[in-house]
Amino acid sequence: MSSKIKRNVLKSMIIGVLAYMGALGAPQPAQAEYADIVINNYADAAGMRPAVFPHWFHRIRFRCKVCHTDLGFAFKAGGNKIDMAKIIDGKFCGACHNGEISWSVENCAMCHSGIPGQPTHFHGSTVQRLIAPAYKPLQANDAKK
Amino acid sequence: MNHKTKAVSLSLAMLVSAFAWNAQSHADEATGVKQSPLMLAEVSSANTFNVNLKKPKSRNLPPAEDGIHDPENEATHSLQHPLDAYKGLPTSEFGNYVDWVKALDEGKLRPRWDRSDPNEEPFVLDLDIVRPVKASVPDVVFPHRQHTEWLYCSNCHPAIFIPQKNANQISMSAILLGQKCGVCHGKVSFPIETKTCRKCHSKPKPAGWTPPLSEATLKNPWK
To answer: How many structural domains is chain A composed of?
Structure first.
């Protein structure tokens, strides 16, 4: 084998290995449930993980009307400006998460369970796919850096 | 498992590129000519493969693996797995892969109409609205029944839809951008995909219907 071929083989192997390692580290697209919402209006700034709201879980138990009429949730992810003060006053999530209808607010990490640093977004939304900049999911250990 | 398949495809890519490099150097040696034929490595990878779009390997993942929940948060692991909740519900091919309307109709779900009173019943309006469509796709039938099972009148009227005939301009562009039907569809109720077109566009055109000719065709001087 001539030295030229050897060099070529070595070159292609190095590139291949590099590509392989790069792909291992590449972020995987999020595969959350359709209509899961990450709400990060204030959470990151307050040193909490962003809240995750699963629509699928709640629609099994309540019709849309309960939250979107009776409790006044607007049809807009992050548009309700919910903060903990409103929740402990029995507004928004606090209308049910009060220890009577559902578990109470001391279970912080049940809602505040999102990967830190994620922007407020609607998982699987058509609008987001069409007009918003591509969302790159963060890895869990990105937050530590 | 994602990593494994990636590893396989990438080792394939490695082999192909290594082969291409070797082939090129052999060809150079044999002919002694600088100009070499078009090699695989020089062709854009977009042109060398003809493959279908990737399907997600798995769906309805548990919260800890779904990419938006933090697996380092302990409580993430005590959240419910969607597949546990979906057991026995009618399935669909989009969204959560659950046919929510059918589940409600079949009585497999009993979501509350009131926050605390499990016995309150919804006010259901059984009224279909037919909306003729200019294009050749089937006309739209809007069923109030399925919507009022879940929602209250004031969720849509009058802010999103004026409750009056011919008062609402609706287009697919508006819907795709999240207005009109798109306030919910494409976000939480069934998504806007090819598989779901016929859920709304469900009434065949009247017999003998032909698409209207465009003005450019009518005025075409070379006709």
So the answer is: 1
* CATH number of the domain to which B197 belongs: 3.90.10.10
Whether residue B215 lies inside any domain: the answer is no
The pLDDT assigned to A116 comes to 96
Among chain A residues, the shortest Cα distance to B27 is held by A5
CA distance A94 to A24: 42
In a domain, A111, yes or no: yes
pLDDT of B91 above 70: yes
**ipTM over cut 0.90:** no
pLDDT score recorded for residue B51: 79
Put residue A141 in one of left, alpha, beta given phi > 0 → left and psi -120 to 50 → alpha: alpha
Comparing CB atoms, the residue among A38, A55, A126 nearest residue B176 is A126
Nearest CA-CA partner of B169 in B157, B154, B181, B187: B181
B186 and chain A in contact, CB less than 8 A: yes
User: How confident is residue B55, by pLDDT bands cut at 50, 70 and 90?
Assistant: confident
Find the domain containing B129 and state its range: 90-203
Within the 39-58 window of chain B, which residues sit less than 8 Å (CB to CB) from chain A?
56, 58
Of residues A60, A130, A131, nearest to B109 (C-beta):
A60
Flag whether residue A113 sits within 8 Å of chain B, measured between CB atoms: yes
Per DSSP, the residues of B46-57 read: HHH---PPPPPS
What tokens appear for B76 in the block?
């993430």
Q: What does pLDDT average to over chain B?
A: 85
Residues A129-143 as b or e (16 or more Cβ within 10 Å = b):
eeeeeebebbebeee
Q: How many domains, in total, are found in chain B?
A: 2
Percent of chain B surpassing pLDDT 70: 78
| Distance (Å) from the alpha carbon of B116 to chain A's nearest alpha carbon | 7
- Is the pLDDT confidence value at A49 over 60? yes
